[in-house]
Each structure stands twice: as structure tokens, then as C-alpha cells.
UniProtKB/TrEMBL annotation:
One of its GO terms (biological process) is microtubule-based movement. The keyword ATP-binding applies. Pfam families: Kinesin. It comes from Aphanomyces astaci. Residues 1-213 form the Kinesin motor domain. Keywords: ATP-binding, Nucleotide-binding. One of its GO terms (molecular function) is microtubule motor activity. This is Kinesin motor domain-containing protein. Belongs to the TRAFAC class myosin-kinesin ATPase superfamily. Kinesin family. InterPro entries: Kinesin_motor_CS, Kinesin_motor_dom, Kinesin_motor_dom_sf, P-loop_NTPase.
């Protein structure tokens, strides 16, 4: 049975770190047991009426791009009253096996935005998010109506923070690096505010709207 939760795994390596050993979104790299492809093997592919879907997006220069439909490169982020934030119009592809998930992931990886810098020949220029959505339909015993329980697994590969002096970035690469650093800073501020609130400190507004990330 599905519990209505959202689980998130985030990696944030330095831009020069080989990401295949932290969180594998590298197309031809070695695929260690901790990567998202192996995580998808843990899904129980059974007959409990659970629908499994996958989505993949990147956040590039504060624009959300659908990696299953790369022509959709400026999706709006909206807030669902019960399921939380989502990218409006993001492709959700039904899957029924581990192999189908890996095939979709490989296709999405090929559509990512990468470029060469002094620190990394195939540097990620965007944050990448792979989602696995589990939906189970069942009858609510109190109302006798059908209801959906939805859980999400978010697998997130953050682009590494950059120093222009080290990467040698200019022009478009410099703009990308600034956007990466700004969004990482915004994420850090959100996590800090959430921690303060959880620890019972003075109530702090969580600045979610400061970045698409």
C-alpha cells in the first residue's frame, strides 16, 4: 500500500568532482549501486493497482525544461493544494519495468544541457531532477468513493557551484555559472529556514519563491 509521501535524494558535488561516483546522470559512466537506476529496481512491480510514472526535467538559467520533450523549455512552476509544487505541463510517462525507467532516463540524459569548462569537459549547466510517481487508486471506506494516493521519489543532481576564476567561464558559461550559484544559495536559505522552524526557533519565512529550484 502507498503512503502519501515525497522522498528526495540530493547530491551536490563540486563542479570538478566525477559525478558517476555520487549520483549517476552520466550517460556512459559506471553505474554504482547508489544511483537512480538502481533505486528504481527497488520498486515492487506487482499487481496492487499501482500506476508508476516517470518525469525528468532540468532547471537551466531559472527555466524549467522537460527532458522527455526538450522543446518545452520554459515550464511554469505551480503549487498543488495537496501534492505540493510541480512543473505545469511536464511529461509523465507510464512505466511498467526497471528497463523502461532506464530507457527513459538515458533519453533524458541525452537532452541535458552540458558544456566544456576548464574544470570539466562535460560540465552540467543545469540542475537535473528525475521523478518516479506512484499512484494507487482505492475505495475510501468512509465515503465509498474512489480516491488516489500519490507518492513521489525525487532524485536530484545539482550542478556544482562554480568560481569563474577556476572554470575560465566567459559569456554564456559565466551567465550559467552565476545562475547555478544563485539557485544553490536560494536552496541553502530554504533548508536553513526549515531547520530553524523545525528546531523551534523564531518562525522564519521559507523563501521558496527565490528560485525555481
Amino acid at each position: 500500500m502507498i503512503k502519501e509521501t515525497q522522498q528526495t535524494i540530493i547530491t551536490d558535488p563540486d563542479t570538478a568532482v566525477e559525478k558517476s561516483f555520487t549520483f549517476d546522470f552520466s550517460y556512459d559512466s559506471f553505474s554504482p549501486p547508489g544511483d537512480p537506476k538502481h533505486a528504481s529496481q527497488d520498486i515492487v512491480w506487482d499487481d496492487l493497482g499501482i500506476k508508476v510514472e516517470a518525469s525528468m526535467m532540468e532547471i537551466y538559467n531559472e527555466k524549467v525544461k522537460d527532458l522527455f520533450n526538450p522543446s518545452s523549455d520554459n515550464l511554469k512552476v505551480r503549487d498543488h493544494p495537496s501534492q505540493g509544487p510541480y512543473a505545469d505541463g511536464l511529461t509523465r510517462s507510464a512505466v511498467s519495468s526497471y528497463d523502461e525507467i532506464t530507457a527513459l532516463m538515458d533519453a533524458g540524459i541525452m537532452a541535458r544541457t552540458t558544456a566544456s569548462t576548464n574544470m570539466n569537459a562535460t560540465s552540467s549547466r543545469a540542475h537535473t531532477i528525475f521523478q518516479i510517481i506512484l499512484t494507487q487508486s482505492q475505495v475510501d471506506p468512509t465515503t465509498a468513493k474512489m480516491m488516489d494516493k500519490v507518492s513521489r521519489i525525487n532524485l536530484i543532481d545539482l550542478a556544482g557551484s562554480e568560481r569563474a576564476a577556476s572554470t575560465g567561464a566567459t559569456g554564456a558559461r559565466l551567465k550559467e555559472g552565476a545562475a547555478i550559484n544563485q539557485s544553490l544559495s536560494a536552496l541553502g536559505n530554504c533548508i536553513s529556514a526549515l531547520a530553524d522552524n523545525a528546531n523551534g526557533k523564531k518562525k522564519t519565512l521559507v523563501p521558496y519563491r527565490n528560485s525555481k529550484l
